[in-house]
Amino acid sequence: MATHAVDGPILLAKKLGGVILMILGGLVAALGADMGSSATIAIGILFVVAGAVFLVLKILRRNDPSQIS
Fold it and tell me: Which of 2, 51, 60, 69 allows an S-S link to 22, with CB 3.0 to 4.6 Å?
């Protein structure tokens, strides 16, 4: 079990960036739905997807099977 992550700040930035992108994307999509703008909804959904990708990449990096010894 690893007791120290070598690139901890980078993983933290991905985690925070992913969460912030998902929240921002949800707000933009809700604003687009309120205004009736499909382009704004699409941009919001893209932000949510990008945030989810950052979080998935963080989880996959943390659970890398080659690091298990």
Answer: 51
